[in-house]
Each structure stands twice: as structure tokens, then as C-alpha cells.
Amino acid sequence: MFETGIRQFRMAMSMVWGRPVDPANIGRLIQDALATLAEFGTPGVDVQALTDGPFADANARAEFQNRALRRTARRLAELSPYYQGHFAANEVQPAKLDLESVSRVPVTVKADLIGRPQDFRCAGVEPVLTTRTTGTTGRPAEVWLSRYETELWPSLAGLSGLLRDEIRPSDCLQVNISSRATAAVQQDVTLCRLVGAGCRVLGVVPPEEALDSLLDGVPTLLSTYPSYLAQLVVAARERGLEPKDFRLRRIDVGGEVLSSALATAARATFGVPLVNDSFGMTEVLPVSGRSCDQGHLHHDVNMGLAEVVDIVTGEPAQPGALGTVVITPYYPYRECMPVFRYDTRDMVRVLPDQPLDCDLAGVPATTAILGKADHLLHAGGTEVTTRDLVEAYEALPTRPWPARFAVAVRDGRLALTVPAAALDGYGEAAAVGHFADRGLDVALSVVPDELAIGLRPLRCDLRETTFAVPAPAGA
Amino acid sequence: MPNLLVPQTMFTLVCVLVGAIGTSAFALFYFRRVRMERPAIGTFNGRDIIVLFCFIVTLPILYLFLPHWALTSFLVLTFLASLSIGYRPVLPGGQLWLLIGLAIGGNIWIARTMLGTVAGWQAYWALTSVIVLLGASAVANLYVQGGMYLRHVAIFAFALAFYDAMFSLVIPITPLLADAFIGYPLDPSIGMRIGIYNANIGIGDLLVYGLFMIAAFKAYGRKAARIAMGLIVVFGSAMPALAPLLISSVTRGDANIAVPAQACFGPVALAAYLWMRRHWGPERSMREFLASDDVVRSAVPVVAATPSAPAQGRQRGRQPEPVRG
Predict the structure, then answer these.
(1) Interchain contact B318–A (C-beta under 8 A)
(2) Between β-strands A413-419 and A442-447, what pairing exists: parallel, antiparallel or unpaired?
(3) What backbone torsions phi and psi does residue B205 show, to the nearest 5 degrees?
(4) CB–CB of B220/B283 below 8 Å?
(5) Using omega within 30 degrees of 0 as the cis cutoff, is the peptide bond preceding B240 cis?
(6) How far apart are alpha carbons B58 and A345 in whole angstroms?
(7) Which one of A68, A425, B170, B212 has the largest count of C-beta atoms within 10 Å of its C-beta?
């Protein structure tokens, strides 16, 4: 208990003063947490302060964020060739940055990262692992990680996961994300090792194989993309599987829009109480976001600054307005190839300026991710986001999961191209009415099902082949 | 010599029994009913015993060199901490601090103004005893509710047996320490005075008895608690109290007695633990204890937050989930 206190103090001091966090110390805290859970069954009081930071007080949080911003910018001005030039060109003075003035620093975009990757690497930091974005939204970017980062991130994730009961030593995590997402896969494998849980990395294999794996009674957690989850749900329903056939207690998804219809279907099919829609992005790791019981996206305030920037003005978005999430991971959480004010192009709306009453009320929040800013449409005088379309489309009674459609605006209307199966037995007129009920004025075009995959690239299309022979149906 | 030694010994026996039984029983009463706050992470382990032992070995030596004002200040801080932590789950903050202030302030006032009379001494000992009983019970609960096991207590008591014998019989620091507290506020003992007879039992011994009692109860339930109480009465109270009748080396003059109680109790505590483990198997964890019928539920209104499962929402969203490209 005394040692644990000292370890927690060391971790807190690193967080407050911005000094490198010792991953081994966090590893020992994980062992302490395991001992605590074995003895008491639950963590003690103030666990949220430990996992989310002692920043329920807005003034304390602002002070912490100002210091973290200056510290991060100072280091970048010193060690990052890209930001040396970027800050000099824009007359950024790291020592004077704060939450107000940071919005005057021009954002970094993916094209910068793709165009000058070497310039983002900090001097004196040895890269050990490269990870690439999946490229479903354009050319992939390559991000290098240091040994410190590859050790620290899983440690922090493991500690918070244990304390939030998101992972237990008795769990087995099945990972159905692209094997090329090396940072994510490495993190999953390492955090499972740290907490003593099992880890089964399958990748984006044919859904039947992933389903077979879920049916052997070992996996209790599933990490995947919404589109792949949709394929699993469809496959499970085709095989007549029910919740009693699975041991899953939790599903985590991210990287795409998760619709309410699909989340409900997944809960009913796999018998999990919730499908957690989290936010993470290779370029801004380890900063992340969590969803709450009211569907907000709560942004991590410990490891980075999340801003919402108005997509038209580039200024901080006002309550109710659409904006893109701009993230600055703080030093010492990002070491090798950090970014400053990285524009994720992921859109959210700023919540009304009033206190939250959700279960994560102490952590700042926005709406859930609504889609990429570059995919925003204007039709009939309103803004139409990818989420608007996916929510409506996946709610069709034909259950066309995952959502395959192409959309454009023609003559002020949404021209929606869908595969025939999406309307099978429902009818075009009924479908138009279905969309109209959801505020979407669409003109439908139908294409053969064989063309469906070309309508909209999804992460479930990052298919990895195997030599496995599918189990017979009903097995 | 028997004219003074026998009545003093009998009086000591009564005081020690009242102190040891009272503290153990109250600690158990509290343990069954009140849940203390504990930190988010942390459970008592073997290394904590070493840390605790180092404190116990070094602090008394420090006490001997401290001026009395500093010693009193240290004791005030110690009791403020133990009482406020221990009774925060039971009383609202305002009432708690008022009562603690009255008790400690009253003790200091009595010690400074009323010790010229037997009645003054009795008032002093009555108030001090209540403070010490409450403080020792709270600290015992803090440790055991923090994950301390019976094996830890038994090893601790066994180590203290050597310490106690060494510093009572070979290097007589314990008697010097006992003398240093006499007549000053917050003597960390339960005691009483009648006529010329004065007897007390120190908070260190009381803490060990409280720990042993509730750790045994937590580990194995009522049957172990009955055995623990029997050992506390016989080896922790009666034997040390009656020892002066047999062993003159622990007496200083006719009636000034300082007995190394842990020298009697420590080995027996360890033996009892080993016996219980052999016959009843592994000890229960706090989780198993809390799930058992040995807990008296809601008998005492608890005003502060008790440790509980984190809210549903706090269990959600595995932290960095880097699945976006």
C-alpha cells in the first residue's frame, strides 16, 4: 500500500510537471491494481480522478492545459524540423501559448504528414515501430513510434482499462482490426499481457472465421470496426446464433460511424450490454475519446488537447455548430513523431453550453463523430453528414448492413445510389419515405448487388486472406 | 513488597483487560458495520509490514529526544488523523471535527490544570482512554479494511515480540518512553488511577490486539474471533499483567511496572495463525468477507461514501482504441 502510494505519486508528478512517465512504474501500478481487484473486487474511491485526471475543476484543467501546450510547443520548436519552420513562419511563441491563443496556430493536416514525414520526426528520438493509417480516406500516412511510446501507451491503457472494468485478467480479447494497424495491434497485445488477459489477433479475416472464433467460448471482448461488426451480425443471424452461443461481455468499435440500428442489433445478437463507440486515430495517438450513456464523445484531457474548429471560419466552433476535431497530443505522451493542432477532419457538433448530466460529466464532450468534413453535403438548405445518412440507411427494415451507398447532391436533392438488396421486398417508394421521415430528401438509384462494394469503401474491405476452411453452417 | 505489588498488579490486570478487550471488541464492532474509504489502488502486503515495523522501531526513539511541546503536537496530529479518518464514515464533517476538537482540547486542558488530584487523574485517564480506544480501533480497521491479512498481523506481532523484549529488558527504552508521557496530554494509553495505583496499557499493544481480532474474524469468521479474544485475554493481557508477581526483572521499584506484552503475545499469535491456516485453509479476502453473513448491513448510518463499484459509465470505453486510419 505504501509502495502503491509512492508509485501513484510518481505518476501524478509526471503528469502534472510533464516529465517522461516511467512505463515500468505504470506496469507495477497495473500489478497493484490487479492485487486490489483480487482483494476487494472493485477499485477504491476517486478512481475517476486516477483514470481521467483530477480535472473536474475547470480552472485547474485550464491551468494544466496551458502548461502542457507550452511544454509541447517548446519541445517541438526545439526538436521537430517541421514545427521549427511552422512556428517560425507563423510567429508562434511557445512560451506564450495558452488555450486562447493556440487557435491562431494554423492546423496541421494529413497532407503535411504525408508530404514531409521525415520533418515530423523529433531529433534524438530512436524510432522503433512504424504504423500506417489504413488509407480508406485517402493516401495512407506513416507514423513512427519510439520504444517509450510503444511501452507507455499500452501501460496507460491497461491501467485505466482495469480500473474501469473494461478488461479483466479472465478476459480474452479478439482483435478484428487490420493487421497493418500495427500500433493498435501492438497496443492490444501488450495491454492484454500486462493485465494477464488473453489476446487473439485475427485481423480482418472472412467474417465466418471470426464468428467461428467467437463461438469457441474463449473471447469475452471484441475489438473491431463498425462495418466488420455489421458483417459479423449478418453472419451470426444467418446461422441462427443467439446470445447464449457467445461469451462476449463487451464490444469496442471505432474508425467508422456506428449507427444506432447496428448497435442495437449487435447487442441483441451477441448479448452484450453495450457496444462502445470509441474514438482513436493513428496520427494523434494516444489521445482518444469515449462514449457515454447519452452518446456524447468525451475527449481525453490528460494526454492531449481536443478543440472543435468551425469548418467554415476555422475559429473555435460555437455551441450547436459543426466543427472538426483538432487534436494536440501533449508531451510526454507523444515523443517520436508528434503533431500539433492536427486536424482530424472528423466532424462533431459542439454541445450546448450547459452542465452535462451523463455518466462521464466530468470530462469535456461533443456529439459523437458525424463523419468526415470532406464528406459533408448541403442539400435542401441543410447540412447532411455521413452519420445522418448511415443512421437512416442502416435503419431500413431490410437491414442493409454494413451501409453501402454512394451519394451526391443533384439539383438540391440527395442522389442516393444503393444496391438492390437494400430495397429487397421493401420498395423504392417506401425507402424514399423512410429517408424523408428522417429529414432526408433523396432520389434513389439502384445498382446490382455485385457493384455494392464499389459504392463506398469500408474498413471491412481491408480483407486478409487465410487458408482456413470455413466451418459448416450451423456448426 | 507484596503490600504494594499485589494490589498494583491486580489493578493493572483489570486496566489491561478492560483496555485490551474493549479495544478488540470495539474494533470488531466497527469492522462488521462500517466501511472506510480506501484509495483507488492499493492493498496491504508483506512489504508494508516492514515499513510499519521500521516506523514503530524508530518513532519511539524520536519521541525520547523531542521536547514535550513537539511530542504533544505530534500526538495531536496523530489522533486528529486517526479519528478523522476512522469516523468520517460515521459522522457528518461538522459534528466529527467538533467532537474531535472537544476531546483533544479537553484532554490538553485537563492535563494542564487537573492532574494535581486523583479525581483529575481519573478524568484525564477516562478521556484519554476513550480517545485511544477510538483511535486504535480506527487504525486497526484502516489496515485490515485496506487488505491486511491475519498472516501479516501474526508476523508483525511476532517481530514485535523481539522488539518489545529487547527494548524493555535489554535496552530499556520502553519504560523511559512510558515515563515520558506521564502527566502530559494524550498519553497514548488506556489507563486509570485509583489512589496511589496507576496502570495503563500502551496504544501499540492495543493496536496489535485490535488488528489480530479483526484480521482473524475477517479471515475465518466467528470461530477465529473467539480464539483470538481468548488469546488476547490470556497472553496479551493476563500474562503480562501478572508477570510482575513472578518476574522481578520487569518491575521498577514496588509498583512501577513495564512489561513487554508482545513478548508473550507475539509467538502465540503466530502459532495461532499457523494453526488456523492448517485447519481452516486460506484466509478470506475482503471481497469474500463483505459477501458473507459476518457483515452487519446498515446497522450504523453511514454518512460518507463507501467504496463501491464504479458507476457503469466509468466502466466504458477502453482508453486509447487506435482503430482509425
Answers:
(1) yes
(2) parallel
(3) -65, -40
(4) yes
(5) no
(6) 61
(7) B212
Q: Is there a contact between A44 and B311 if contact means CB atoms under 8 Å apart?
A: no
Tell me which H or E stretch contains B273: helix B261-280
The ranges assigned to domains in chain B are 2-315
Report residue A176 as a C-alpha cell.
478484428
Q: Please give the residue of chain A at the shortest CA–CA distance from B51.
A: A2
CB-based contact (8 Å) between B149 and chain A? no
Residue that the C-alpha cell 500489478 belongs to: A31
Residue B204 CA to residue B59 CA, distance in Å, equals 12
pLDDT in tens, chain A (475 residues): 888 989 988 988 888 888 899 999 999 999 999 999 999 988 887 776 666 666 667 788 888 889 999 999 999 999 999 999 999 999 889 988 998 899 889 999 988 988 888 999 999 999 999 888 766 656 788 899 999 999 999 999 999 899 988 999 999 999 999 988 888 999 999 999 999 999 999 999 999 999 999 999 899 999 999 999 999 999 999 999 999 999 999 999 998 999 999 999 999 999 999 899 989 888 898 898 988 888 899 988 888 999 999 988 888 999 988 999 999 999 999 999 999 999 999 999 999 988 888 888 878 899 999 999 999 999 888 899 999 999 999 999 998 899 999 999 998 899 999 999 988 888 889 999 999 999 999 999 999 999 988 898 899 998 888 777 655 554 4
Asked if B315 has any chain A CB less than 8 Å from its own CB, the reply is yes
- Spell out which residues of chain A touch residue B318, defining contact as CB-CB under 8 Å: 157, 160-161, 164, 166-167, 223, 252, 276, 278
| Residue A401: burial class (beta carbons within 10 Å; 0-12, 13-18, 19+) | buried
Pull the grid cell for residue A220.
469475452
Grid coordinates standing for B270?
503466530
Distance from CA of A424 to the nearest CA of B (A): 32
Nearest-Cα distance to chain B for A473, in Å, is 30
Best mutation target among A21, A34, A40 (most B Cβ atoms within 10 Å) is: A40
| Contact flag A44-B42 (C-beta cutoff 8 Å) | yes
Contacts A–B by Cβ distance under 8 A? 205
In A, minimum Cα distance to B41 occurs at A33
**Closest Cβ–Cβ partner in B311, B315, B322 for A282:** B322
Cell (9 digits) for B27: 474494533
Report CA-CA distances (Å) from A188 to A177, A249, B216, B320.
11, 17, 41, 10
CB-count exposure of residue B136 (10 Å: 0-12, 13-18, 19+): buried
CB neighbour burial string for A19-39, b if at least 16 within 10 angstroms, e if fewer: eebbbebbbbbbebbbbbbeb
Q: Do A223 and B305 touch (CB under 8 A)?
A: no
Q: Which CATH architecture has domain A5-363?
A: 3-Layer(aba) Sandwich (3.40)
Tell me the nearest-neighbour CA distance from B152 into chain A, angstroms.
13
**Residue in chain A nearest B142 by alpha carbon:** A1
Residues in Cβ contact with A91 at an 8 Å cutoff, skipping those fewer than 6 apart: none
**In Å, how far are A111, A179, A347, B212, B216 from A456, measured between CA atoms?**
22, 21, 19, 68, 66
**Bond preceding residue A286 cis, omega within 30 of 0:** yes
Q: Would the CB atoms of B316 and A164 count as touching at under 8 Å?
A: yes
What does the domain layout of chain A look like in residue ranges?
5-363, 376-454
Omega before B185 within 30 of 0, i.e. cis: no
Q: How far is B303 from chain A (nearest CA, A)?
A: 15
User: CB of B264 within 8 A of CB of B240?
Assistant: yes
Q: Say if CB B322 and CB A184 are below 8 A apart.
A: yes
Amino acid present at A346: D
- Of B322, B312, B314, the closest CA to residue A223 belongs to B322
Q: Do B43 and A36 touch (CB under 8 A)?
A: yes
Point out the residue among A44, A225, A298 whose CB comes nearest to the CB of B37.
Answer: A44
